[in-house]
Design goal:
Blueprint lengths: L10 E7 L6 H11 L3 E10 L2 E9 L6 H9 L4 E7 L8 H14 L4 H9 L3 E6 L14 E5 L4 E6 L7 H17 L7 E4 L5 E6 L5 H10 L2 H8 L8 H8 L4 E8 L2 E10 L5 E8 L8 H15 L4 E6 L5 H8 L3 E7 L2 E7 L12 E4 L5
Parallel strand pairs: 12-13
Antiparallel strand pairs: 1-3, 1-4, 2-3, 5-7, 6-7, 8-9, 8-16, 9-10, 10-11, 11-12, 13-15, 14-15
Helix pairs in contact: 3-4, 3-5, 4-5
Length: about 375
C-alpha cells in the first residue's frame, strides 16, 4: 500500500572524479536532473593529477544513494564519497574555514569542533603524542595525524570520503593560527567527585573499546535499559565502534585509574542547530557528580560546534537527566512525545561551571 503523505527529499553530498574532457560535469548534472535531483551547490577541489567536484544535491523521494552513484558512472565518472548533507554544507569552504577559525579563537577549547568543520570529518580528537594508537590498519586517506607545537597530535577520521591535500592544508593552517594566537588546545580535564575521587574527562576513541565494553558489563540492567531503552547486556563490536567514533559527533569518557566509568555522546541530527545527547554512568559512580560534569563537557562541545539545542530521549519514569541538567545550570524544557520524554537542553554560554561536590581543573595547562 502506497503511503499517502509526502516524503521529504534527502540532501546528499557527493564527491565525483571525472575525466578531464569538455562538458563532463555538465553531462553529470543533466543526468542528475533527469533523476529529479536539484543541484544546490558545486565546488571544485584540486587533487594530484586533476580535480574532484563536490556536488550537493536534493534527491527526489525514494531515490537511493546507489541510484546517484549509477547516474555518475553512466557518464564515465567515479563517486569517491557520498554522505548526508544539510544546509550547513551549502556554505563555501573558505567561508566555513574562516568562521571555524574565528569561533576557535573566541571560544577556548573549541579547536576540535573547528577542525571537524574545516575537514568535514566524522571525528577529531587531540591526544598526547604516542597515545593515538595504530592507524595503519584503517583505510588509507580516511585518517590523518597533525602535530601541534605543544606536543599534541590531532587525529581526524572520515569514513565517507578520503581527505584531500587542500583540506589538510586548511587544517594545518588553522592549527598554526591557534598556536600563534595563543588559543589553548583542548586537553583532558580533571575533576574531583563528590566523595573526593579523581577522574579525567577526555575524548573517547577506538583504543577505548575494551574499557567501554567492560563498563557495560558492570552496569545494571536497569541502567542499561534507561540508556538504550531495550534489554541488553553486551554490545556488538560494531556498536562499540560507533559509540566511540560516531559519524558527525563526539564522545567524551570519564576515566578513573584504568577504568572508564562513564560515557557521553553528542550527535548531529538532521536539524542544523540541534544535536542529540546521551549519558551512561556506571551504577557505582552515580550520584557523585560524574554525570553532571560529563553533561557540562558535552554542552561545551556542542556550543563550540554551533548547536543551540541538545535533545535527549528518556523513559517517562526516569527524571535523572532532568535533575542532572538542573545541577549543571542548563535550561531545559520537557514534553511527552511518542511515549517518551523529549528533553530539550539549551547549551547557553556561561562561566565555568563547577558541579556540586566536583572540582574541575586542566591537566597540562589552564584555560
Amino acid at each position: 500500500m502506497e503511503p499517502t503523505g509526502k516524503t521529504t527529499p534527502l540532501t546528499w553530498r557527493l564527491r565525483v572524479q571525472l575525466d578531464d574532457s569538455p562538458g563532463a560535469l555538465a553531462r553529470v548534472t543533466i543526468r542528475l536532473a533527469e533523476r529529479d535531483c536539484n543541484v544546490l551547490a558545486l565546488s571544485v577541489i584540486p587533487v594530484p593529477g586533476g580535480v574532484i567536484d563536490e556536488i550537493v544535491v536534493q534527491a527526489a523521494p525514494g531515490l537511493l544513494p546507489a541510484d546517484l552513484v549509477e547516474a555518475i558512472r553512466a557518464e564515465g565518472g567515479r563517486c569517491t564519497g557520498i554522505t548526508n548533507a544539510d544546509l550547513r554544507d551549502l556554505v563555501d569552504a573558505p567561508t566555513a574555514a574562516l568562521r571555524a577559525a574565528g569561533n576557535a579563537v573566541r571560544h577556548p577549547g573549541s579547536a576540535c569542533a573547528a577542525l571537524r568543520a574545516v575537514l568535514a570529518a566524522d571525528s577529531v580528537v587531540v591526544l598526547p603524542v604516542g597515545t593515538e594508537g595504530d592507524l595503519d590498519d584503517e583505510k588509507p586517506g580516511h585518517h590523518v595525524r597533525l602535530l601541534t607545537r605543544d606536543g599534541l597530535v590531532v587525529v581526524a577520521r572520515r569514513g565517507w570520503s578520503p581527505f584531500t591535500q587542500v583540506e589538510l592544508a586548511r587544517a594545518a593552517a588553522l592549527i598554526d593560527l591557534l598556536d600563534e594566537s595563543g588559543a589553548p588546545t583542548p586537553r583532558p580535564t580533571a575533576m574531583i567527585s563528590a566523595d573526593g575521587m579523581a577522574l579525567v574527562l577526555r575524548p573517547g576513541g577506538a583504543a577505548d573499546e575494551a574499557a567501554v565494553a567492560a563498563l557495560h558489563t558492570r552496569c545494571s540492567m536497569r541502567t542499561l535499559f534507561t540508556r538504550y531503552h531495550s534489554g541488553m547486556r553486551t554490545l556488538p563490536r560494531r556498536w562499540l565502534h560507533r559509540l566511540l567514533s560516531p559519524p558527525r559527533g563526539a564522545t567524551v569518557v570519564a576515566q578513573c585509574a584504568d577504568q572508564v566509568v562513564a560515557l557521553g555522546q553528542v550527535i548531529r541530527t538532521s536539524t542544523p542547530d540541534s544535536a542529540e545527547i546521551s549519558l551512561l554512568v556506571e551504577d557505582a559512580w552515580q550520584h557523585r557528580g560524574v554525570g553532571t560534569a560529563l553533561l557540562c563537557a558535552l554542552a561545551d562541545t556542542a556550543r563550540a560546534a554551533g548547536y543551540r539545542e541538545l535533545v535527549a530521549w528518556c523513559l517517562p519514569s526516569e527524571t535523572g537527566l532532568v535533575r542532572t541538567a538542573a545541577r549543571a545550570g542548563l535550561e531545559t524544557a520537557v514534553r511527552r512525545e511518542d511515549g517518551l520524554l523529549r528533553l530539550s537542553i539549551t547549551p547557553t554560554p556561561a562561566p565555568l561551571r563547577t558541579p556540586a561536590g566536583a572540582t574541575p581543573a586542566q591537566i597540562g595547562g589552564t584555560r
